[in-house]
Amino acid sequence: MNLYALSARTLPMDDTWDVIVVGGGPSGCTAAAAAAREGARTLLIEGTGALGGMGTNALVPAWCPFSDKKRIIYCGLAERILHASKRSTPHVAEDRVDWVPISPEDLKQIYEDMVMENGAEILFHTTLAAVETGEAGEVDAILVVNKGGLSALRARIYIDCTGDADLCFMAGAETVKGDGGNEPLMAATHCFVLTNVDETAYLNGPNLHPSNPASPVFGIIKSGRYPQIPDTHLCSNLIGPRTVGFNAGHVYDFDNTEPQSISKGLPVGRKLAKAYRDALAEFFPAAFGNAYLVLTGSLMGVRETRRAMGDYVLTLDDYMQRRSFPDEISRNCYYIDIHQLSKPDQPASAEEAEKDRNKFTARYGPGESHGIPYRCLTPKGLANVLVAGRCVSTERLVQGSVRVMPSCLAMGEAAGLAAALAAAMHHPDVHAVDTLHLRSLLKNHGAYLPDPSRDCESR
Question: Which of 244, 211, 217, 241 is nearest to 229 (CA)?
Fold first, then answer.
């Protein structure tokens, strides 16, 4: 690749911010709201035209569980968003808190209202372009690009909620992608929405999920008429009247940090969505015979890319031991959910699909969860940067659990509150935040943070 030397220039600079949050997905929304709620002058920059990330632009059709099967454990702002989201899906049972369908258009406004009502400002269609660092291990400014051109933004504290650890990576912090070697990343999914579905037939017919041996997906695969459908992954939810959202199929060899990969993968995902519409119309005509493919995600459903290495790396052993930490800022109970890395040579049968689902899976019992320590949110070597969302500091297998939206919401609120505390310091340092005080403030805002057990003191 040839190199091009930029000419010397000056850029407009806005240095009026206490906290800048990069990325308006679930963690970015709660981070911005929480920082502004504490009085920090907060800016949220988002590369698309709507907040919400996976639950809105990517069309993920349902929330992962909010409960540990005994109580809601993703509380505070996360629980508020869940209940607001449920008001837009009145067909959902009032007491349901796990696998709740999402109305993506309503969720966009829920996030916007929460962020703005708490006093944060939003800058849409604005993308992180570069990071300027100082000699003392701090980010001096970030460069962003939008319709106004290239400009600089400066804050006392920055929060990386990009999902891909973009800010940390550009700042020179240590990041790990996937397993750190050449193994592929978890396959992505291009979610989509079908309308004009017969609700009665859909709700009373065979469950589409491959855990059901009678799912039409096995007949679709066996027929060989839809080669675009590579595997049996098929999740669906009724998200509105006669409208079903799908988290189905996989797009393999997709890397959300590589522009060429994104550009190749999205057309594959759109063809896959069309193939599902046609296949379901043929194999489940009572429900989908007249279905209409109305929308595919403007973002790919990405499960993993980079992770920022922090002061602590959450391990598989931590997960298996249900470990608590003195500085934990949230709890997590979602199972370890590792999707296929490579396209299978042959699509799985019902029995093989069940084995694949259990191959990289670890699950908790009712009431069980583990802590996520604040140190997973503090990237090593950067004094004024926090990270929240799927790119926090974990081992790869554990990232397969903490990456989901309820957990990201809880981590985002903690990061935003910590950012406000650090921004108020004479010399801002996210590593110096008083975590006992942080935990106390989080509890005051409704967070579920049981007192850690004595055996966590050395962690």
Answer: 217
Are 269 and 296 a contacting pair, CB within 8 Å?
A: yes
Cβ–Cβ < 8 Å for 319, 362 = yes
Q: How far apart are CA 153 and CA 162, in angstroms?
A: 16
Nearest to 42 by CA among 51, 33, 55: 33
Phi-psi region of 63 (alpha: psi -120 to 50; beta: other; left: phi over 0): beta
Element (H, E) at 231: none
Q: What are 80-114's pLDDT values in tens digits? A: 999 999 999 999 999 999 999 999 999 999 999 99
Give the C-alpha separation, 459 to 456, whole Å. Answer: 5
pLDDT in tens, 273-306: 999 999 999 999 999 999 999 999 999 999 999 9
Q: Quick one: pLDDT band at residue 126, thresholds 50, 70, 90? A: very high
Taking the C-alpha atoms of residue 332 and residue 256, their distance in angstroms, rounded to an integer, is: 25
Band of the pLDDT at 458, cuts 50, 70, 90?
Answer: very low
Q: Give the residue among 166, 177, 120, 125 at the shortest CA–CA distance from 413.
A: 120
d(CA 158, CA 134): 14
Give the model's pLDDT for residue 356: 55
Residue 309 has pLDDT above 60, yes or no: yes
Residue 285 to residue 171: CA distance in whole angstroms: 53
Token pair, residue 239, equals: 């998200």
The residues near 106 (Cβ < 8 Å, ≥ 6 apart) are: 85, 88
Integer CA distances (angstroms), 351 to 218, 232, 261, 433, in order = 11, 11, 32, 50
Work out the burial of residue 145: count CB atoms within 10 Å of its CB; fewer than 13 is exposed, 13-18 middle, 19 or more buried: middle
Strands 306-308 and 175-177: antiparallel
Residue with tokens 């057309």, as numbered in its chain? 267
Dist. CA 137–CA 382, nearest whole Å: 5
For helices 104-117 and 77-86, the axis angle rounded to 10 degrees is: 140
CA dihedral sign, ordered 307, 311, 317, 322: negative
User: H/E element holding 112?
Assistant: helix 104-117
Query: Which tokens is 375 given?
Result: 């140190």
Could you tell me the sign of the dihedral formed by the alpha carbons of 155, 409, 55, 268, in that order? positive
Contact 360, 397 (CB under 8 A): yes
Task: Say what the pTM is.
Answer: 0.95
Length of the chain equals 459
Under the banding of pLDDT at 50, 70 and 90, the label for residue 1 is: confident
Contact 57, 48 (CB under 8 A): yes
